[in-house]
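Support request, please re-run this one:
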Amino acid sequence: MFSYSRFFIFFLIISCSFFFGQQKSRDTFLIKGANWEQMADYVSFFEDRSHKLSLDEVLTLERNHQFRKKKEYRVFNSRYTRSDFWFVLPIKNVSEKDLQLVWSFYNNNFNVDFYDITKANNATLLAQVSPEQMIDERPFDSRALCLPFTLKPKEFKKILAKINITNANQIYFLSDVTTVEDMLFWEQNYAMTVGQFLGYFGFMCLFNIFLFFILKQEVHLWHGFYVFSIILFTLNENIVDVLLLPKWLYHFLLNFPKMFWLLVSLIFCIKVFQLFTDQKRNFPRLYRVLFFCRNLIIVTVVVQFLLCVFLNVQDTIAYEFSIFSDSLLLVVSILVFVSIIYQSIRGDKNSIYFLVASLFILIAFINYMLDAIWQMQLFYFQPGNILVGMMVEVSLLTAIFIVIIVKQSRENRKQFEVKSIENQKLSKMMLNLQEEERKEIAQEIHDGVGSHLSGLKLYIQNIFESKKPIEEDVKSDILGQMKNIYEDLRNISHQLMPAFIEDSKINDLLTNKFEQYQRQFPNIRFGFQENIEGAKLSQTERLHTYRMITALVDNAIKHSECTEINCQIYYEDKHLEITVEDNGIGFNLDSDFSGIGLRSVKSRINYLKGNINIESNKDGSIFIISLPIN
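Re-run finished. Output below.
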């Protein structure tokens, strides 16, 4: 008969046996070929804060079980430290054949001394491996720091590894033991993958610099620098610099920790973001904050560069400053992402594009920091989350740049076509206005000067035909009429081209013109104020400005029935601000410049790329004109 109590006791015994059996098996790493197990389950370590422990003292500590295990994660992370670390790996070949094995440490920030301590009283130095060594100088040809060794069938070994930091503020590495064949196969595939990433980043770097030289847009140059800094980080993070760089350059770059290159890339990332979103104009407060942060990072990078060149990272000053720079990297990165999100929420289109492009790198960076600080990795993409995230970001940003360039090109072509049509219309309008002005001047000459000359001709002809002596009052009358004709001709010529327009200042021309108005129309009070100091107007700008103001004043005199006309002209912020005001009867704005004078004003304003505002009612009219001065 089935008994639940018996079944529970039986299950408990089996579970405990399995658990304790597993615990016992983890005292020694049992290997029979290619390995896929996590080394953290078998490796124990001891931290030497004094840097003074001898090999014999360490062996004594190991025999007294002073070494401990760090099982919480597959990666060993000491966090910030300046200590030496000793690692012990007990390993046994449980297969029936000889195994050619490799114990690997994937990092280039520390030296490793390997010892065989299988025999308690006879420790043997197996190898000394350093990042300073090139590939052909190492015991095993690999980017990782490796110990090759052989295990015969059923053979047991206990290997001790001493690690001391060189150019970092923490020990952080992935470690494994596997066969030589498996190691070489994995390394080959990994190298091909990283090489493809590097090739892609190299292409993107050159492509963005090419865009800068073609389009002359600063954002592409900074994006090219950003991609180049990613290449330097990739070389360091994936330990492929020793495979690709010449010896002198590799030894120089070896002085700089990977966080240094992340700081450099953050400088360029901020600059690209600010230029791409036009943050200085759209979000000036955020721009000032990020501008300060970018400058602070630049100073930090320069100081850290000098410290890395002249001091070891383990020196007190360099060590403390490296912690500061890592903290600055984290804080500013968070601030940048908050800025991206804030500007996206505010509806800035380019910020939304940037957020979409940076979303994966944001998640990857958070995951990277969790892994580095608290050993909490949420996910992992081969060959690295940061690398994959940067590839996604660079690809999307470059694609967005290209889409924007194509879109801007189409818009520019449409604007060019529209401007071309507008210029044709404007040219036609200017020609029509010139023709109408010529007709008006011809009519004025015919009705004014022509009629006066015709009358004077008949008057003189009658005097000559009478053959009488010319009296003094007749002479005075003839001279008076000739003076009036001269004045009419002078006024007409002044309308065609104001005197000395090539050399005179616009304020002098207008002052003289308003004095003339006051003499001609004494029943109207004229006012003119000017302050255009610093304005450098071309001859064309002077002429059109003069024509616009005189056209508006002439219209007010002829049609507004005003008793007062005031004109003001000021130069401010590279613009000429003109105001013409009268106290007349006003006019209907819906008539839309039906007269030649007002149409001429509008055409000249369009020609100078300015704008005009008009207010008119029964109490008078006011014209406000703004003209950009190049």
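The two ends are 104 Å apart (CA to CA). Confidence is low (pLDDT under 50) at residues 16-25.
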